[in-house]
């Protein structure tokens, strides 16, 4: 069955230029060209395009561009495990955000801090207290998200209760977004002595994760259909 680019573009509600870009990126097989130079797509191309558009919303184009070449090389299991890893990461982030949301309740935060009766903590102690690797704490410091003081004699980092309070908020926000610039922007909006904005952001992030898992499952469905079509072709 021959399909014109305009027919597929209308079905996907995209421009024909998008279809050309996908072909140029190598994430769909090359189209057959007629003597006049016009592209002709097949049912297989249509399945690729449908899969790409469905996966885009849940996984992002970077993942699509990584997975589609695997599919073209018939590395179906490799592609499926890649998708599974991304879904597992989303599940982990949801668990982290849910746990952080509970910690950020005012009474729970105060209870958490009240149990810490020391005035100053080393980076190793903070690492254990809030379950964040020391390398991450140093990175956040480098990005100027946190500024612990230094022991004048040893030069070691020293964290107080306010630092731990702020680090818990950073951890909460980081569990829901990837870019540190986003974390920095959110922190600027959060009063250090109020948790309401941090909690609101976390709840919004959890709602978005619910949307994202729906989109990921929809994308995985179209990926499965594409794989089944290609398996039939091989057999």
**Radius of gyration (Å):** 24 Å
Strands of the widest sheet, in order across it, are: 1-2
Low-confidence stretches: none
Overall spatial form: elongated
Largest sheet: 2 strands, antiparallel
N-to-C order of helices and strands: HHEEHHHHHHEEHHH
From the structure provided, what is the oligomeric state, counting identical versus distinct chains?
single chain
Query: End-to-end span in angstroms?
Result: 19 Å
Helix content range: 55-70%
Derived from helix and strand composition plus strand pairing, the structural class reads mainly alpha
Secondary-structure map:
Layout: H1 5-12, H2 16-24, E1 32-33, E2 39-40, H3 43-59, H4 61-72, H5 76-103, H6 106-114, H7 123-130, H8 134-142, E3 149-150, E4 157-158, H9 161-174, H10 180-189, H11 196-234
Antiparallel strand pairs: 1-2, 3-4
Helix pairs in contact: 3-4, 3-11, 4-5, 5-9, 5-11, 9-10
Which descriptors apply to this entry?
mainly alpha, two-stranded antiparallel sheet, elongated, 4 strands, 235 residues, 11 helices
What would your notes on this structure say?
- The chain has 235 residues and is mainly alpha-helical.
- 69% of the residues lie in helices and 3% in strands.
- It has 11 helices and 4 strands; from the N terminus they run ααββααααααββααα.
- The strands form 2 sheets. Strands 1-2 form a two-stranded antiparallel sheet. Strands 3-4 form a two-stranded antiparallel sheet.
- A hairpin with a 5-residue loop joins strand 1 and strand 2.
- Helix 3 packs antiparallel against helix 4 and helix 3 runs antiparallel to helix 11.
- The chain is elongated, with a radius of gyration of 24 Å.
